[in-house]
Amino acid sequence: MNPCKRREFIKTIAAGSVAAGAWGSMFAAEKRPKRSRPNILYIFTDDQSIRSVSCYEEAHKWVRTPNIDSIAAQGVRFAYCYTGAWCMPARATALTGKLPHGIESMRMTGKYPGSTYDPKKCPFWPATFRKHGYYTGMIGKWHTGGDTGHGRDWDYSAVWDHTQPGVYGGYYKNQKISFNGAKPKAVGGYSTDNYTRYAVDFIKQRAEDLSKPWYLWLCYDAVHGPYNSARRHDKDYKNAPEVAVPKDIYPPRPTKPDYMKNYGVWKRNAAGRPAKRGGTLDRAVRQYNRAVRALDEGVGKVLDALKASGQLDNTLVVFTSDQGFAWGQHGFAWKYAPYDANLRSPLIVRMPGRAASGKLCKHAVGGHDLIPTFFSIAGIEPPWKMHGRDISDLLKTPDMKWDHPVLMENTKYYYGKDTERKDRPGWSGVPWWIFLRRGRYKYIRTLVEGEIEELYDLQADPEELTNLAVDPKHQRLLVDYRNQLVAELKRTDAGMVKNLPKVGAAAYRKGG
Questions:
Q1: How far is CA 26 from the centre of its chain?
Q2: Structure confidence by residue, pLDDT tens digits, 29-79
Q3: What is the pLDDT of residue 1?
């Protein structure tokens, strides 16, 4: 036998042997009857920029994520996805199908990151899937209140509750996990590997019971700070080249809102490279991407488990993150701001017959668009009005005409009627904001009285360096997008539309 082919043969057998011991051989599993309704696997990472996923053009050339890339090779990769502004609201949207202004009773309480909600005023949609015959599971990071919903929203749960760090421990190491609503117990190991193992076990167990389709929300806590890598990856990317320095890493930024004009956490070190608190940009980006390595391996193991159990092609696999993360862009080492570098998430979807294969979708979508899409694919009527749009057709035909806008907002940790308050307290120097993305343009409205607006042509200016809102030649377009944002707020029943602050006189024109 050809040596290369022999190695591939041995690799294939080895990969299948783990699964074989638990539920029979791959070949026997593939012959199992399939469920009539699709399963849904929603992989939800933390703070993961598109620059850390190698199938994205913006990724660092030395980054490698072959398993995540394999989903894109067989599915649809979205160039632009906006899931949330930071961890908690992105998760609240993922559980309700609503943007923060439509989520009642969600609150930050006590010491950060403590939070709570009233399940009667703020029901989570997985409970509806359960009522319609789905077996539901949640694994990993929870950041929406001490009530994790086991028995109401979830049939199975393995929860690391970030809202109670004193009880559950911190990111990556020394965590405690609550299994199926029980008292949390220490599990040891590395969190990314643990969550992967729980997910693989879930998939194996569901392969033994074909009476119900399933939904699994797999919430990795990677790649959130402190970016601890698995020991096996501690030396990865050691010789990676220097990171390209973003053009506006240092102020001033004269055409941006006041809070951005001189914002910045980076200073030049003795070698002339960007650094903060003694750590260089190069070092930070390498360590961040080391933490992604185990995440990519985990995705591969989960996909292998689906394939070995005969469930892969009847499972809608969705990979995304709660938001992106900026490393130097616009002066940030954070998410939270309204720019693509801070927020843009990877989004990749795979399922034969439901999603095209190996295609790129250039239309922008939101994380809130995924929830009505799940309902559509499952054949279940949504239990309430959701803010997103069903993108099932877009999955099948990624290049179809699609003119729907994406609305995104940052109201700190305020939800529901609390988003209508007029004082609008900011966070770490970043005020509240709303943006609307439609076609090639993005319009940003900072919710500060008298502040200028922002308008970017993301086709000509993907780094959002040139604010067209202050250019008299673009005033008609500015007014159009200002009015579109107001219309989208009204469509989603946002009470804040009644008391939006006036925009700055320099850019103010009729219609605002």
A1: 32
A2: 444 455 689 999 999 999 999 999 999 999 999 999 999 999 999 999 999
A3: 42
Residues 6+ apart with CB under 8 A from 221: 46, 140, 141, 160, 162, 171, 172, 191, 192, 195
Three-class SS state of 377: helix
Return the structure tokens found at 418.
């609390």
Confidence at residue 278, expressed as pLDDT on a 0 to 100 scale: 86
Residue 240 phi/psi, 5-degree rounding, is -65, 145
Range with lowest mean pLDDT among 22-26, 340-344, 396-400, 451-455: 22-26
Q: What is the mean pLDDT of residues 299-307?
A: 98
List the domains of the chain with CATH numbers.
36-400 (3.40.720.10)
* CA-to-CA dists, residue 322 to 51, 59, 84, 331, angstroms: 15, 18, 6, 21
Three-state SS across 443-496? EEEECCCCECCEEEECCCCCCCCCCHHHCHHHHHHHHHHHHHHHHHHHHCCCHH
As beta bridge partners, residue 93 has none
Beta-sheet pairing, 454-457 with 441-446: antiparallel
Amino acid type, 382 = P
